[in-house]
Design brief:
Blueprint: H1 9-18, H2 37-52, E1 61-65, E2 71-76, H3 77-80, H4 83-96, H5 117-125, E3 129-132, E4 135-138
Antiparallel strand pairs: 1-2, 3-4
Helix pairs in contact: 1-4
Amino acid sequence: MRAGPLSQDNVIKMLNTQFVPVFVANAEHQGKGSASAEDKEAYARFRQTLDRDGYKYADVAFYVLKPTGEPYESLDINTSLDKTNFAQFLKVCTDTMEVRPGPVVLPVKPQFLRRSVEDELEWQQNKAFVFESGDSREKKG
């Protein structure tokens, strides 16, 4: 997703000025996941609300919520992979909910920096591992 629809400048701008993006890892909010009991309860209520209101739940999906926290719209991962569909989805949501752009609350920071292809190839060629008893250790020399 980060290399697809979430990498578009117009989508980044909309998300940063008209939405409060929240990422939720399902595994952390179910069973023995690491989320707090309070967060797990909120997650369970959200799932129940999706079911009650007829929204299809998916492990990977985008949900737009009303200011009250109730679901407003959803988009499944397969549809959202088309950059045009995702940008249009966000535009329809902002237009119908009459959301106006505001200031960016937090400065945008890259989550990771990628190496160039050349740097990656050189790094891979200079790495060798010795496997001993299930351990991997960088080979010297």
